[in-house]
Amino acid sequence: xxxxxxxxxxxxxxxxxxxxxxxxxxxxxxxxxxxxxxxxxxxxxxxxxxxxxxxxxxxxxxxxxxxxxxxxxxxxxxxxxxxxxxxxxxxxxxxxxxxxxxxxxxxxxxxxxxxxxxxxxxxxxxxxxxxxxxxxxxxxxxxxxxxxxxxxxxxxxxxxxxxxxxxxxxxxxxxxxxxxxxxxxxxxxxxxxxxxxxxxxxxxxxxxxxxxxxxxxxxxxxxxxxxxxxxxxxxxxxxxxxxxxxxxxxxxxxxxxxxxxxxxxxxxxxxxxxxxxxxxxxxxxxxxxxxxxxxxxxxxxxxxxxxxxxxxxxxxxxxxxxxxxxxxxxxxxxxxxxxxxxxxxxxxxx
Length: 350
Fold this sequence. Notes:
The chain has helices spanning 48-56, 110-120, 126-136, 152-164, 182-197, 210-216, 234-239, 244-249, 258-261; strands spanning 13-21, 24-32, 37-41, 63-68, 71-74, 95-98, 170-174, 202-206, 219-224, 227-232, 253-256, 265-268, 273-276, 286-299, 302-308, 313-318, 332-338, 343-344. By secondary structure, it is α+β, with helices and mostly antiparallel strands. It has two domains: 13-244, Rossmann fold; 254-344, CATH 2.40.50.100. The protein has a six-stranded mixed β-sheet, with helices on both faces. Strands 13-17-14-15-16 form a five-stranded antiparallel β-sheet, with no helix packed on it. Strands 2-1-4-5 form a four-stranded antiparallel β-sheet, covered by helices on one side. α2 (110-120) runs parallel beside α4. The longest helix has 16 residues, at 182-197. The chain is globular and about 80 Å long.
């Protein structure tokens, strides 16, 4: 390691991971260049935490391999005959990990929490490294505090300082902003972006929040039921969502209906969906049909109305139009969409 506090190697991640828990199987390929951030999005139970644990060495994979900076750290329990097994435990992987609940030691000061990692690795200057990292993140004034006296934002910064104090080659962040209040989340997100911009290694950020993913990551990987269903830069998820989950995540409708998209998959912005109580007059430039209201979600300037079709989709109704639309669950409404608002997108295997 260098004496500057930076990792001696700016590491990339190249992993093919297959691991099972009962009937659940995670099967994913993960490649993260050095100096970039990959966000992993997915619903609960998709395998996000299992993926992170495998990269950290807290979960051994069944098949595949995990390479960090070109070095194999895990080649699976199920290998070809005669192939020697490789498995490096967490302390040998030079991976800085920030857990969702931060897991700070309540009986230690902030300084000693941050010094714990370097000291566990036998570094004589653990306290000096910890002090330097606290100063680098602008929280040196917290050094003598105990974790129980910290706010959520302060605890998140301390957890990040602890992860960076070991001079990691890679960073693994498990929902690092999930425990924060709304009032501080935006500010801490911006600080995290600035910190990761200076980190030379690969970063994997697990999150359920697309705002975090789109603001922080260079690439977004979507996991659903243990499978990678989409990967690409954040804008690609908005431009061409490949599953209903990704479409909902980005606030869009994904439909596949002969009448709407000529049998193709297409996306429709909820704001392009018009609702009326009476059947609109037929127009060649639009499509209309009858639907049933199945759900209503109120927001600041309007409501999102879920509709059963076919197709099922969501409409956005501005507050000024609510007086003219019956949005009670079970109500019958007419739906119309301009044809030029129906945008075809590739399917999952295209």
